[in-house]
Amino acid sequence: MPRPTVMRKEHSTRDLELPPPSLIKLPDEGDIDHENIVVALDSDNKYMQDLAFNEEPVTIMIDYSDDEYPPAAIDAWVNGFSPEILVNGRWYRKPAIPVGCEVTVKRKYVEVLMRAKPETVRTEHGTSQEERPQNNVRRTPRSAYNLTVIEDNNPAGREWRTRIKREGG
Questions:
Q1: Are strands 135-141 and 97-98 parallel, antiparallel or unpaired?
Q2: Are the beta carbons of 143 and 116 closer than 8 angstroms?
Q3: Which of 32, 51, 65, 115 could bridge across to 70 with cysteines, CB 3.0–4.6 Å?
Q4: Does residue 5 register a pLDDT over 80?
Q5: 165/169 Cα distance (integer angstroms)
Q6: What is the rounded average pLDDT for all residues in the chain?
Q7: How far is 97 from 63, CA to CA, in rounded Å?
Q8: Across the chain, how many H-helices and E-strands are there?
Q9: What distance, in Å, lies between the first and last C-alpha atoms of the chain?
Q10: Beta strands 97-98; 73-74: pairing state
């Protein structure tokens, strides 16, 4: 049975009016007036704790794929930034995470790899001779990249990985 089409009104950010920014006057001499500066660090703030959690280093190894032409490195971008990889105690920004070797990256890039789940779509349909032929679409998600977590020093890391796998893409 066909599903009804739902009409929705789309909203473009071009339609939103932005308020003009307030004027900030810097003194010609002396110190800046610190009374108007708000410090946003709050140790009890869950959002700030989550941000700090996602910046923690995790040592992983991406397994080689069974594809005919497997990639040698995997792209994993977060907010327009490529991963930083720990090599000999120093962080380097690389365009991709190499496959088949131990690398230390920030947790946020591991999450991108774990959430990458392409789906295989298969349709099953009846024949025209049937009284009520059925059309079914079967979707089978799979992990795009299999990886092994070698070192995660945060005790909450195991629960985090379980939650990410359970949530899907």
A1: unpaired
A2: yes
A3: 65
A4: no
A5: 8
A6: 80
A7: 12
A8: 3, 9
A9: 28
A10: antiparallel
